[in-house]
Structure formats: C-alpha cells, structure tokens
Amino acid sequence: MSAPVHTVQAGDRGPLLLCLHGIGSSSAAFAPQLAELSAHARVVAWDAPGYAMSPDPPGPLDLDGYADTAAALIRSHGASAHVLGVSWGGVIALRLAARHPGLVDSLIVADSGPGSGTDPAKADAMRARAEELAGLGPTAFAERRGPRLVSPHAPPALVRHVIDTMATAVRLPGYAYAAASMASADLRGELADLTVPALVLCGDQDRVTGIEASQALAGALHKAAYVIVKDAGHLANQEQPAHFNAWVRAHLDIVTEQPKGPSCL
Ligand SMILES: O=C(O)CC1=CCC(=O)O1
C-alpha cells in the first residue's frame, strides 16, 4: 500500500507531466516548470514521501516503493504520464517505467544516472548524508550542501532558493530512506529493456552526477535524445529554466504528436 503524498499542480489541459524532485529538494524545485510548462501540460510535482508537506512513510521505502507511490499518483490523475525526474527523481522515474510501463508515456531524466549503487564510494557517501543531516539539522545541512548543487556562477538568489528549499524539504526519517534507496540503486541491468522515449539532460557544470554518467545513461537507453544544458549545475531545471523548458516542450511535442491519417476530403 503506497503512502499518500502532497502535490502541487498547475495547468488544466494537455498531457500529464509528473515531476519527481532530487534527494535534497521538494516540489518547490519545479516552480519554473509549473509556471511555464502549465500552458502546455497538466504539471504535477510531488513532495516525495517523508519530504516537505508529505507525511512520513510508515517505514523505509526502497526504490520500488517510491516507484509504486508515483504509479499510484499517476493512476489517481488518469491513465498515464510523461515523467520528469531530477537526480534521485530520475532514478525513481526509470524504475517506474520498468515496473509500470503502461503508466509512463515518456521520460525526461535530468542530471541523473543509473543510481549510486553503481559505485561503492558514491553509495557510501549517499548513506553518510543522512548521518550528516542528523548531526547538523536541516538548516545547517542545507547551507553546507545546497551551494554544490548549482554551478559556481549561479546567482546568489538561486543559491538562497536552493538552500531554503532544502532546509524546509528534508527531515528524518524520509531523507534517510531516500538516501538508502539511492545508495542501493543500480539500474544498469534494466535500462536496455526500457522502450519508452526519453530525453536525458545534464548541466554542463553538474558537480554531482557529471556529464559522463548522464551520457552513459542516455547511451544505455533505446530511444533517448541527449542534451547538455549550458551554464548549469546539478539543478539545470532551476538554473537555466528557459533553455530546460524549451527542450521539455520540444520533447513533449515530438512524443505526443499524433500520426497524421489520410485526409477525409
Ligand atoms: O547531494 C545532493 O544532495 C544532490 C543529489 C544527489 C542525488 C540527488 O537526488 O540529489
């Protein structure tokens, strides 16, 4: 049984676009997508279980648990969705597509790779993150962690927004469950089976995922287009929203295009 989640929504027509945030964030990360893409899609952004305004799950969720919770959310909105996932959200989106192929029309995976379980050092660092949060508390944790998620040249107002979003989004145990799910995720063996169309993006100054890992992800998927977002760090959707949104729109236009039948005239 999936835990209920809080969502923010904008737009009342077009395809459903479900937005899944990264491990240190919340639905607030998608403010530029809710504002701009809602003219073309019904945009829904979640607070993951145990984050921001979503209640704590009754116990640890693994990656399947997050994917199943997202699947229940899609079902509650109708038939299927295009799923935009950033970082950890991208890993959830990929698992969602593997477990519930009928619910995912296409994937948009930003600043993400096949999971931290692919690299023991990354997995250890991810697990240690929850202890850091426990030791520092959300505010000091966000002050330390937030600036790394944008490029070194990000405007101070964006850095502040990222820190404030993180400080209000993360708490234990939700963050620890999320970090554990990311630390044990290794999707390399399942990517080739995904046939859903995908757009993979990465900030050219992403210091968390890195272009190499995101390129490898795109290369492992059957039908993926790959875009490097210039002048952006790990949170490319927030740092270069106009560029990012333009690519998402182009992707949605392509994947939702109806085949043109013969004219009736
Ligand atoms: O380290 C962070 O907080 C950035 C990050 C790693 C995985 C993710 O979703 O965000």
Automatic annotation (TrEMBL):
Matches recorded under Gene3D superfamilies: alpha/beta hydrolase (3.40.50.1820)
EC annotation from Swiss-Prot or TrEMBL: 3.1.1.24
InterPro entries (UniProt xref): AB_hydrolase_1, AB_hydrolase_fold, AB_hydrolase_sf
Positions in coiled-coil regions: none
GO molecular function terms attached to this record: 3-oxoadipate enol-lactonase activity
Stretches assigned to the AB hydrolase-1 domain: 17-242
Gene Ontology CC: membrane
Keyword hit for Heme: no
UniProtKB keywords: Hydrolase
Entry superkingdom: Bacteria
Record PANTHER family: HYDROLASE, PUTATIVE (AFU_ORTHOLOGUE AFUA_2G14860)-RELATED, MONOACYLGLYCEROL LIPASE
Protein name: 3-oxoadipate enol-lactonase 2
